[in-house]
Every structure is written in C-alpha cells, then in structure tokens.
C-alpha cells in the first residue's frame, strides 16, 4: 500500500509538470538570414516607366553613329585661318580650276613665311605686258587684304633677262638700305627707260648710269650689284621659276599653290578679280 501511495504522488507530480510546460512554451531562437552580397541583383527598370528628370538635369545623349556623322560634317567645313580682315567665301566661286588657273601639286615654297598669303608676280622689265600690268597692280596694292604679302620675282631666262633681274634685286636691296627713297618712282623710271626711251639697259655700265641719275653712288651700286645677297636672291628666283613652271610673264602665283595670268583669266581686270578669289580660297580653308 505504501508503494502504491508513492507511485500515486509521482504520477501527480508528472501530470502537474506537464500542464505547466504546456502553458509556458519555450520561445524559439531568432535565426538571422545569411545574405550573399554577390547574389544581389538590382531590379531592372523599364525605361518607359522611369520618371523624367527635370529639364535642367536632362543629360545630352549622342548616339555613336550620330557623333561620327557630326565629325564627318565638321571635317567638310572650311577652317578659318586666324588672321586679320579675312574675306568671306562667296556662295559660288566665279573662276574654275583648270580653266582660269592651275593648281600646283604639291604646293611649292614661297619667298616669305606662312604668316601671310603670298601673291607673287613674275615679270621682266623689258616685257610690254608687264609694263601695262603695273597700272592694275599699283592700285590693288593700296587696298589688298591685311593677310596678304605681295612680292615681285624677276624672270631669269637668258642673259639680258637675267641682267634685268640683277638690276631688280640690286634695286630691292638699295631700297631696304635707304639708298633709294622712292621705290615706286624708281621702278616706273626703269620701265620708262626701256619702253619709252629705247634704252635696253643691256650692260652693267648702262644700268649703273640709271642708278646714278636717281641718287645712288657708283660705290653703293657696285658693292650691292656684286653682293652675296643679290646673288642669293637670283638663285631663289631661278629655283622658284622652275618649281612654278613659269613659261611667260606676267604670271601670278598665289601661295605657292595657284598659277595664273591674264591669258587664263581673260584680261587684266578679271585677273585682279581672280587673284582676290584665290586669296579668299586660301583664307577660308
């Protein structure tokens, strides 16, 4: 009986413990999820559903093909040289390459530097056409564009023509050294001596006399006439005439690239217009 009573007590304790356990359940532990950052993928956004940005924040988008097209168009546009008083290109050119002027390929050297567009006139004091051309060149020189340099280059074809070329370069050096005060007057006097007075200036002595009449001493003339500077200028003139393929005078070469003359242009007035147009071609490129 005593054992039965003990077993009864134990059973009651177990039942009581079971009831308490059911009423107060043990809380489950919180398990933190493990996140693999490499597996995170940003959600795709439908471009049509994206809210438009403010106008000030809108980026400028250029497609690659469009950018290439703009580059091609830019390459076709003329490059404006940075120089004063640059002429404006006309809607249509008046003169035609191959008819009114020849383009030299490759472009040849010039007397001066690349800072200006060079217009060179090849001439001979004994040429009647060169004498007539003076009436058109002189007024043009007073109004030529600021980005243009004008030079004269004497022909050197034969002994007499070369003698007159030496006359011209002696004149040029004496003008530079201040020995000839009025170069335009002296130049006109040389033309008049040949074409009006019949003085062919066919010797050094005859040329010296002309310089002496215009105030140049025989000593200054002789030292300049035989100088290295004049000899060098003659060599340059001969080389340029060969490079430019000068076959007649007066001939005009613009910037070592374009060669023309009155015959190609159709006379002296259109030749001056052609020179201006070639200057514009070189100014706007």
Structural account:
This protein is an alpha+beta fold and 285 residues long. It has 2 domains: 76-155 and 248-285, Glutaredoxin (3-Layer(aba) Sandwich), CATH 3.40.30; 156-245, Glutaredoxin (3-Layer(aba) Sandwich), CATH 3.40.30.10. It has 10 helices and 5 strands, in the order H-H-E-E-H-E-H-H-H-H-H-E-E-H-H. The protein has helices at 2-23, 64-76, 128-143, 159-176, 183-195, 204-213, 218-225, 228-244, 262-265, 268-283, and strands spanning 102-103, 117-123, 148-154, 251-254, 258-260. It has a 5-stranded mixed β-sheet, with helices on both faces. A hairpin with a 3-residue loop joins strand 4 and strand 5. Helix 4 (159-176) crosses helix 7 (218-225) and helix 4 crosses helix 8. The radius of gyration is 47 Å and the shape is elongated. The chain starts with a helix and ends with a helix. Residues 18-84 have low confidence and may be disordered.
- How many discrete domains? 2
- Estimate the helix proportion, in percent: 40-55%
The CATH topology of the largest domain comes to Glutaredoxin
Strand fraction equals 5-15%
Number of strands: 5
If helices are DSSP runs of H or I spanning 4 or more residues, what is the number of helices? Answer: 10
Radius of gyration: 47 Å
> H/E order of the elements?
HHEEHEHHHHHEEHH
Shape descriptor reads: elongated
What is the average per-residue confidence, as pLDDT, rounded to a whole number? 80
Class of the largest domain, according to the CATH hierarchy? Alpha Beta
- CATH hierarchy: architecture of the largest domain: 3-Layer(aba) Sandwich
Strand order, largest beta sheet: 1-5-4-2-3
- Which sheet architecture does the biggest sheet show? 5 strands, mixed
Distance between the termini: 129 Å
pLDDT under 50 segments (min length 5)? 18-84
CATH superfamily membership of the largest domain: Glutaredoxin
Q: Helix/strand-derived class?
A: alpha+beta
């Amino acid at each position: 009986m005593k054992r039965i009573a003990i077993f009864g007590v134990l059973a009651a304790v177990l039942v009581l413990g079971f009831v308490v356990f059911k009423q107060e359940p043990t809380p489950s532990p919180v398990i933190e999820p493990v996140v693999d950052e490499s597996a995170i993928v940003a959600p795709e956004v439908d471009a049509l559903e994206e809210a438009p940005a403010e106008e000030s924040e809108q980026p400028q988008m250029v497609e690659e093909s469009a950018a290439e097209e703009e580059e091609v168009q830019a390459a076709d546009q003329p490059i404006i040289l940075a120089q004063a008083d640059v002429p404006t290109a006309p809607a249509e050119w008046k003169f035609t390459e191959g008819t009114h002027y020849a383009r030299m390929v490759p472009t040849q050297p010039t007397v001066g530097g690349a800072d200006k567009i060079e217009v060179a006139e090849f001439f001979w004091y004994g040429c009647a056409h060169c004498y007539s051309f003076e009436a058109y060149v002189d007024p043009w020189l007073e109004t030529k564009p600021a980005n243009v340099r004008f030079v004269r280059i004497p022909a050197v074809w034969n002994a007499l023509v070369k003698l007159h070329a030496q006359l011209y370069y002696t004149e040029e050096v004496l003008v530079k050294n201040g020995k000839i005060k009025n170069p335009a007057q002296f130049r006109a006097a040389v033309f008049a001596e040949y074409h009006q007075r019949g003085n062919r200036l066919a010797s050094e002595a005859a040329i010296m006399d002309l310089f002496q009449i215009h105030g140049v001493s025989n000593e200054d003339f002789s030292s300049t006439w035989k100088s290295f500077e004049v000899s060098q200028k003659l060599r340059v003139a001969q080389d340029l005439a060969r490079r430019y393929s000068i076959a007649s005078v007066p001939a005009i070469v613009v910037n070592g690239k374009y060669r023309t003359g009155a015959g190609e242009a159709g006379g002296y007035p259109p030749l001056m217009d052609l020179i201006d147009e070639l200057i514009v071609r070189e100014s706007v490129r």
